[in-house]
Amino acid sequence: MKEEIMFPVYIRSFGSFIPKRRVTNEELSKTVDTDDEWIRSHTGIGARHLAEDNEATSDLAEQAARNAVERAGMNLEDLDCIVVATATPDHIGFPSTACIVQSKLGLKKIPAFDVTAGCTGFIYALEIALAFMKDSHMKNILVIGAEKLSSITNWADRNTCVLFGDGAGCAILSTIESPRHLEDRSSRKFKEPGFIDSLLYSEGSGSEYLMVPSGGSKNPIMGGEVNIEDVSLYMDGRKVYTFAVRVVSETIVELLERNEMTIEDIDWIVPHQANSRIIQAASKRLKIPMEKFFLNIEDYANTSAASIGIACAEMQEKGLLKAGDVVLTVGFGAGLTYGGNLFVW
Ligand code: UT7
Question: Is the pLDDT of residue 219 over 70?
């Protein structure tokens, strides 16, 4: 097992924002042909939170950012860069949601940009931010995963509408000169928090399995009648499910192997929250106890690029993350993209 962290950047704090409106499975079953039993047994989802009509992805992202900055005991002005991972930007094409968040936070003269990698977006954005910090004088980067999936959901399609929710999760990456806290790490393997490794992959040949068919440059919508199916999320659930079980397992194994670790070295696996059955299947395949996986899909459903940030923020808030814990994130989604990060808290 690797004994030291090579590059001194660490996650100083997580933050999140969950919209107030909670919609249970029972409520959904009043408007679409489904029921609580089917949704729970096929996905592990019990409810989802949905943003208001006048709330955009940038509003959710802004609130999550404020939450993380407050938890970190920093000032907004300390942020050197904003990266937003989202599949549901405020606008198609431009401006980026990150620029809108920057304006809402009142920040000037810093870079702000979006990353599009489907549900793997948060994992991609963390690694991009880390690379940025290596080659610049930046000290603090805000990475946000934010989604208003309800804005691309066809509420008449039971195959997809029961699966998704809205929300935002974020992380502040800082250089080690600004320590989060001075916890005692004497009994832990890693004496400092930081990043160990990341994996980022894509299998573009599967791009048609999860997409919004129209509205982009391939099928622009310029006047005429708009079919709801064309502008809402389409997913071949079975294809994505099979892909997900395979790549969750592969990612965990590759991250462990290339860092000379075993599963015993990992304290937490934080997976993208798409379906608890995907995680159970990977857990069985790799013989990893389910207790190692943090799951909160029951309360929030699948929030795409926001799900891992929301999960980590909840773990931080509940005190589940202990100084020195080794955390492995693993995600998959549209693209088809997948990957994971390995870091010490
Ligand atoms: O975050 C991005 C990545 N996304 C994912 O990872 C999602 C991956 N896929 C999945 O999680 C699962 O494939 C689903 C949860 C989407 C579907 O579960 P499944 O066990 O693969 O079900 P299925 O698609 O094979 O459908 C089984 C049956 C069908 O009925 P018939 O054709 O067998 O009569 C569906 O029509 O379940 C029916 N069904 C529903 N029934 C009640 C599909 N959705 C519903 C529903 N309520 N909401």
Answer: yes
Asked if 335 and 118 touch (Cβ cutoff 8 Å), the reply is yes
* 119 shares a domain with 67: yes
Q: Give mean pLDDT, residues 80-93.
A: 97
Query: Over the stretch 111-170, which tens digit does the pLDDT of each residue have?
Result: 999 999 999 999 999 999 999 998 889 999 999 999 999 999 999 999 999 999 999 999
Residue 261, in any domain of the structure: yes
What pLDDT is recorded for position 2?
62
Query: Which domain, by its residues, includes 261?
Result: 194-344
**Atom 48, ligand 1: which residue's CA is nearest?**
158
Asked whether residue 128 is domain-assigned, the answer is yes
Question: For residue 92, how far is the Cα from the chain centroid?
Answer: 20
**Same domain flag for 297 and 339:** yes
Kindly report the backbone phi and psi dihedral angles of residue 190, in degrees, each rounded to the nearest multiple of 5, phi listed first: -95, 125
The answer to whether residue 180 is domain-embedded is no
CB contact burial 26-35 (16+ within 10 A = b; e otherwise) = eebbeeeebe
Q: Are residues 26 and 170 in the same domain?
A: yes
Catalytic residue among 119, 161, 170, 312: 119
Quote the tokens at residue 16.
């999140």
Is 189 among the domain residues? Answer: no
- Looking up residue 207, the CATH number of its domain turns out to be 3.40.47.10
Mean pLDDT, the chain, as a whole number?
95
Same domain, 250 and 120: no
Q: Is residue 181 annotated as a catalytic residue, yes or no?
A: no
Residue 5 reports pLDDT greater than 70: no
Distance 159 CA to ligand 1 centre (A): 6
One DSSP character per residue, 165-203 reads -EEEEEEEEEETTS-S-----TTSS-SS-EEEEEEEEE-
- Residue 177: what pLDDT? 78
pTM of this structure: 0.97
Task: Name the pLDDT band for 1 (thresholds 50, 70, 90).
Answer: low
Nearest atom of ligand 1 to the alpha carbon of 238: 13
